[in-house]
Please model this.
Amino acid sequence: MTTPVPDLSAIHEFLLCPTPDAWIQAALAEPELMLVDHANCEKKAAGTALNLMFRYLDNFDLLNKMSRLAREELRHFEQVLAIMKKRGIVYPHISASRYAAGLRQQVRSAEPGRLVDTLICGAIIEARSCERFARIAPHLDEELQKFYLSLLKSEARHFRDYLTLAQRATNEDIQPRVQQLLEVERDLVQSADGDFRFHSGVPAGT
Model:
């Protein structure tokens, strides 16, 4: 049975650029590394949600959304681990990509800007993850293709949840700030990276 692909038009309209073809080729050349870093990304996503839950105890909407999101991300982590174990892939320590760090460098230090920016960055990361799962899935073996396509619905929902929470965290229109952070994200995606990671930019030398 073919896994249905949800409508990702909102994701594509949101992001300022598609994943470069050179990243697809790098991912296909290093499938084990892609899975290792994918596992790391799921852990980090759960950690981000938990950190927000500890920091903003007075925001019940955020607490509920982040609790659900953390559980889902940890479930995805377990699924990636199961695939890695089945394929005999070891789980080494690898360096983080500059992608998430590059976005979070832009986060303002004072509230509510800090919360707004953190949530917008979360939305951008989830949107890019969703877009990359959809881009790489057709090129993968049947098991991985089915798994990656199964992640699209939850990643798209996480994207929407983060954006909604960001707008609720301030009385100001967040769109100008979203645009600023999306421009940073576009530069990270389109510029050269020395090491391949799930969220890396264009492989150096291509």
Notes: The CA atoms of residues 143 and 191 lie 31 Å apart.
